[in-house]
C-alpha cells in the first residue's frame, strides 16, 4: 500500500504544482468573481480552471478514481464519499484573499481511501510553499520535515480561527463569543483567511491550534492528515473523533491543548455536507 500511495503522491504533486500556475498569473488580485451563498462567498474563473485541470489530469492517470471538488459541488454535484479512492479538492482556498491580492491562497488536495486521508497536499504557489503528508510517513514543507509545537495550555497558545463566509446571525454570534474567549484566554489569535493554511501553520508549529465551524471536507481533508503526521491532533470541536463531513474541526499541536480548547468553545452545528 505504501508504494501505491507514494506513486499517487508523486503524480499529485506534479499536478498541483502545474495547477498553481493559474493562481500565480493573478498574484496581484482577481477582479472578476461571482457571488455564491452570500456577498462574502466568492468563486472566480481560476477556481474552476484549477479544479477542472486537477480532475482531468488525475483522471488520465487513474480513471477509476472518484472526486469531490468544491466548485463541482457548488454546481450541483452531490457529496458522495465512499470507500473508493476519492480525491478531495479545494482549488483556491482563501478566495477572498485571492480576489484582493493578499498572498495567502492555496490549493488543497487530499486522497481518501476507505474514507480516510492517505495523502494530503496544501500548496501556496504565491509563496511556493508546499505542505504535504503521506499516511505513516510524516509531514513536510517543501520536502523538509515539519513538526507541531509543544504548547499544551491555551494561555500559552497562538490560536488561528476565522470569521467564515456566512452572514448567518447565529453563526456570527458564535464567532463573536469565541473571539471574546480567545482574546481573554489565549496568548494570541491570528486569521490567515484560509482554513487549509491555518492548519498548515499548526502542522509547522507556527500556530498552536486552529478551529472552525462551517468549513467543508475540501477545506480540511489534506490539513487533517498533515497536522496528524506532524505530531498533532484533529478532533471535533466539542471533543471526540472528527467527522470530515460534519463541517466542524479543531486541530492542535498537542492533545492537551485540543482538549482544553474544546471545553471553552461556544459550539455551532452547521448542516452536514
UniProtKB/TrEMBL annotation:
Its EC number is 3.1.3.25. Mg(2+) 1 binds at residues 70, 219. InterPro entries: IMPase, Inositol_monoP_metal-BS, Inositol_monoPase_Li-sen, Inositol_monophosphatase-like, Inositol_monophosphatase_CS. One of its GO terms (molecular function) is inositol monophosphate 1-phosphatase activity. Mg(2+) 2 binds at residues 90, 93. It holds the Pfam family Inositol_P. Its cofactor is Mg(2+). Keywords: Hydrolase, Magnesium, Metal-binding. One of its GO terms (biological process) is phosphatidylinositol phosphate biosynthetic process. It comes from the Eukaryota. Pathway: Polyol metabolism; myo-inositol biosynthesis; myo-inositol from D-glucose 6-phosphate: step 2/2. Belongs to the inositol monophosphatase superfamily. It catalyses: a myo-inositol phosphate + H2O = myo-inositol + phosphate. PANTHER family: INOSITOL MONOPHOSPHATASE, INOSITOL-1-MONOPHOSPHATASE-RELATED. Signal peptide: none annotated. It is an enzyme of class 3 (hydrolase). This is Inositol-1-monophosphatase.
Amino acid at each position: 500500500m505504501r508504494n501505491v500511495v507514494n506513486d499517487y503522491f508523486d503524480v499529485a504533486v506534479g499536478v498541483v504544482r502545474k495547477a498553481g500556475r493559474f493562481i500565480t498569473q493573478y498574484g496581484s488580485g482577481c477582479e472578476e468573481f461571482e457571488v455564491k451563498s452570500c456577498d462574502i462567498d466568492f468563486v472566480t474563473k481560476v477556481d474552476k480552471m484549477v479544479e477542472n485541470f486537477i480532475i482531468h489530469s488525475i483522471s488520465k492517470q487513474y480513471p477509476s478514481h472518484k472526486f469531490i471538488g468544491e466548485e463541482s459541488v457548488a454546481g450541483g454535484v452531490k457529496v458522495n464519499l465512499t470507500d473508493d479512492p476519492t480525491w478531495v479538492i479545494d482549488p483556491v482556498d482563501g478566495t477572498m484573499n485571492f480576489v484582493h491580492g493578499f498572498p495567502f491562497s492555496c490549493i488543497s488536495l487530499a486522497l481518501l481511501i476507505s474514507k480516510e486521508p492517505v495523502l494530503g497536499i496544501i500548496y501556496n504557489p504565491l509563496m511556493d510553499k508546499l505542505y504535504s503528508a503521506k499516511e505513516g510517513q510524516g509531514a513536510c514543507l517543501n520536502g523538509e520535515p515539519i513538526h507541531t509545537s509543544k504548547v499544551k495550555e491555551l494561555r500559552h497558545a497562538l490560536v488561528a480561527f476565522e470569521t467564515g463566509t456566512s452572514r448567518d446571525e447565529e453563526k456570527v454570534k458564535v464567532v463573536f463569543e469565541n473571539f471574546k474567549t480567545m482574546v481573554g484566554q489565549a496568548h494570541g489569535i491570528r486569521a490567515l483567511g484560509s482554513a487549509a493554511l491555518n492548519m498548515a501553520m499548526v502542522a509547522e508549529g507556527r500556530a498552536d491550534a486552529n478551529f472552525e465551524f462551517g468549513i467543508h471536507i475540501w477545506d480540511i481533508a489534506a490539513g487533517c492528515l498533515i497536522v496528524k503526521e506532524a505530531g498533532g491532533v484533529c478532533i471535533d470541536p466539542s471533543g471526540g473523533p472528527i467527522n470530515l463531513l460534519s463541517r466542524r474541526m479543531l486541530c492542535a499541536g498537542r492533545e492537551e491543548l485540543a482538549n482544553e480548547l474544546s471545553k471553552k468553545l461556544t459550539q455551532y452545528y452547521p448542516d452536514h455536507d
